[in-house]
Amino acid sequence: MNPLSTAPDAGRQRPRVLVRGTGLLGASIGIRLSADGHAVQLSDPSGTAESIARDIGAGQIREAGDPDPEIVVVAAPPEVTAAEAADALVEFPESVVLDVASVKAEVLRQLRELALSPGHDLSPADLTRYVGTHPMAGREQSGPVAARGELFTSMPWVITPAHDPATGEQIPSPSAVAWAEEIARRCGATVHYMDPQEHDASVALISHLPQIAASLIASRLQDAPTSALALAGNGLRDVTRIAASDPNLWVQILAANAAPVVEILHGLRDDVVRLIRTLEDPRAPGRQADIAQLISEGNSGRARVPGKHGAPPQSFARLIVIVDDRPGQIAAVLNDVAKVGVNVEDMRMDHSAGHQVGMVELSVLPGRCEELAEALTELGWKVVQS
Ligand SMILES: NC(=O)c1ccc[n+]([C@@H]2O[C@H](COP(=O)([O-])OP(=O)(O)OC[C@H]3O[C@@H](n4cnc5c(N)ncnc54)[C@H](O)[C@@H]3O)[C@@H](O)[C@H]2O)c1
Ligand SMILES: O=C(O)C(=O)C[C@]1(C(=O)O)C=C[C@@H](O)C=C1
């Protein structure tokens, strides 16, 4: 009997996993599952991506004659995801097949079309072993070199089981869904369930809109004078980090989720037009209240962004440690923080223009900030609380 025909057994089973597509996502999953004791096989049309993934500990390159995987994770670009998942369902008739593409309804639509197509070996019954998923974690860099085993820790991972449009019944078997959930948990993520359409509408707002906004803002900088760019502070860095993302990937994501994105862009356009009108004559009666309203609407939205583990938003206390600008200083600070036993929730490094010093900004729980500042000062660090 297929060991995966039942739900995960109290976390003891370690099914063999094939990761198809060993870029950022695939290699990160491979690292995490290998560390958790799974035998992970790797395959990618790019031999370089496969070799790098293997070399960084994501698993072993799948060779002819290797045993069939029990779980396949398709981590390929969105436009080939349905075809890759279909091939895996046909090639490994006992395996559970997951994908991690950023869009869900279009992948499912293509898979259904393949299952109904007389020219394809995929049958509708095979779809009982397919589970669409989407880890809400990534980076602006791609390829296995950017992979990190910790990528998914405490981040949401959405599972989007398909339902039969006629009967409303869930298509993937309960054990396939349970295994998808188990893989997400073993990668350190927190699991959410949604149907594919609700997922796509949600990510249009919380993922696709930010990407578009970051790209549009960063594109304004292309011809900016170098003297202006030299003044760039954290505000600009915060809102443009994801503007460095892969254009190829985003063409595919936005094209596959265009309708919900367009709806949101209409609303954004209305707000931009309103702001332009206001600022054309900012001293006219009522205009300053308009500006204040726009900024405070942003405050309200921002306050709703949840913290780690989907917990309510939490403001961390921040302290800045001033370090000499030489190798090993960040590690030395973090080492001392670990000695004090305080968890760092976030960290960033900044340089003071024209000075040979760096500023390591540490975000910690407010209740631990005072104690950490005192301990680091005692250990000889220059500490500033902000
Ligand atoms: N980048 C992110 O932040 C992020 C986050 C969550 C989900 N995703 C999704 O994960 C998937 C992979 O994205 P990524 O960021 O790892 O991209 P990536 O470019 O880092 O890696 C994609 C890999 O897929 C390989 N590939 C290309 N065609 C293939 C095929 N037909 N079969 C198997 N592999 C193939 C490429 O050679 C490459 O190594 C995408 O579907 C993306 O939507 C990305
Ligand atoms: O943090 C980043 O760099 C990301 O772009 C990650 C992000 C996101 O919007 O949160 C981007 C696209 C993916 O589909 C999932 C995650």
From TrEMBL:
Ranges for domain Prephenate/arogenate dehydrogenase: 15-313
Family matches, as InterPro entries: 6-PGluconate_DH-like_C_sf (IPR008927), ACT-like_dom_sf (IPR045865), ACT_dom (IPR002912), NAD(P)-bd_dom_sf (IPR036291), PDH_C (IPR046825), PDH_N (IPR046826), Preph/Arog_dehydrog (IPR050812), Prephen_DH (IPR003099)
Record field: catalytic activity: prephenate + NAD(+) = 3-(4-hydroxyphenyl)pyruvate + CO2 + NADH
Domain ACT: start-end pairs: 318-386
Family annotation (Gene3D superfamilies): 3.30.70.260, 6-phosphogluconate dehydrogenase C-terminal like domain, NAD(P)-binding Rossmann-like Domain
KW Oxidoreductase (keyword) present: yes
Pfam families with a match to the protein in the record: PDH_C, PDH_N
GO MF annotation terms: NAD+ binding; prephenate dehydrogenase (NAD+) activity; prephenate dehydrogenase (NADP+) activity
Keywords assigned by UniProt, alphabetized: Amino-acid biosynthesis, Aromatic amino acid biosynthesis, NAD, Oxidoreductase, Tyrosine biosynthesis
Pathway: Amino-acid biosynthesis; L-tyrosine biosynthesis; (4-hydroxyphenyl)pyruvate from prephenate (NAD(+) route): step 1/1
EC numbers for this chain: 1.3.1.12
SUPFAM superfamilies named among the record's database cross-references: 6-phosphogluconate dehydrogenase C-terminal domain-like (SSF48179), ACT-like (SSF55021), NAD(P)-binding Rossmann-fold domains (SSF51735)
A biological-process GO annotation: tyrosine biosynthetic process
Family: Belongs to the prephenate/arogenate dehydrogenase family.
Full protein name: Prephenate dehydrogenase
Organism (species): Nesterenkonia xinjiangensis
Phylogenetic lineage: Bacteria, Bacillati, Actinomycetota, Actinomycetes, Micrococcales
